[in-house]
Design a protein that fits this description.
heterodimer; A: about 120 residues; mainly beta; six-stranded mixed β-sheet; four-stranded antiparallel β-sheet; 12 strands; about 50% strand; B: about 110 residues; seven-stranded mixed β-sheet
């Protein structure tokens, strides 16, 4: 079974600073996907960024980037130039690669509560 | 607008009563999911469904039941057998993309049982 661990329950930074959220996972799979989801106070889950395990290049979406270390099973999220609207819970999640069409389960970490201070 | 709707946003029930949470999607997605979220924990999968009239247990299915009679709808019933039903419940749906499923989430229902 896959497990996802986020070791930082809470983090707090000043606006405009850069912050890195940590995530490690355990799997015996070789092909899989990793995701970071954001859950603001509205509690709506929003996909921030995803990484395919077969890609060596780290994914980037505007101010959000990841550091994917497959051998170390590490998948950290870096938020640059942090903004007040980045305040949220952030969840790291794992999904196995689907060999055939069918529902694929997401396995979530415990979450990191990030607060951006003005 | 396409999306996933969950109703109601807040639900209150007395202990011992069954309660059904609604989830509807108009995205034409094949697969649908139910997750439970507790404070300090990530989301945990309750049930999922790949197609109409088919569903599978997730990691914490005990005390819950589902049905999938229509592609658009995947209601979750929290039965009196569920020992700790108070939680935030999220519904999601997904469609086969290039090689993976991206899951889209509804706004959630907060269930309080007293």
């Amino acid at each position: 079974a896959q497990t996802v661990t986020q070791s930082q329950p809470e983090m707090s930074v000043q606006e405009a600073e850069t912050v890195t959220l940590s995530c490690t996972y355990d799997t015996s799979e070789n092909n899989y996907y990793l995701f970071w989801y954001k859950q603001p106070p509205s509690r709506q889950m929003i996909l921030v960024i995803r990484q395919e395990a077969y890609k060596q290049q780290n994914a980037t979406e505007n101010r959000f980037s990841v550091n994917f270390q497959k051998a170390a099973k590490s998948f950290s999220l870096k938020i640059s130039d942090s903004q007040l609207g980045d305040t949220a819970m952030y969840f790291c999640a794992f999904m196995k690669h689907a060999r055939v069409q069918g529902a694929q389960k997401l396995v979530f970490g415990q979450g990191t509560r990030l607060t951006i201070n003005p | 607008d396409g999306g996933i709707t969950q109703s109601p946003k807040y639900l209150f029930r007395k202990e011992g009563q069954n309660v059904t949470l609604s989830c509807e999607q108009n995205l034409n997605h094949d697969a649908m999911y139910w997750y439970r979220q507790d404070p300090g924990q990530g989301l945990r999968l309750i049930y999922y469904s790949q197609i109409v009239n088919d569903f599978q247990k997730g990691d914490i299915a005990e005390g819950y039941s589902v049905s999938r009679e229509k592609k658009e709808s995947f209601p979750l019933t929290v039965t009196s057998a569920q020992k700790n039903p108070t939680a935030f419940y999220l519904c999601a749906s997904s469609i086969w993309g290039a090689s993976f499923y991206e899951q889209y989430f509804g706004p959630g229902t907060r269930l309080t049982v007293t």
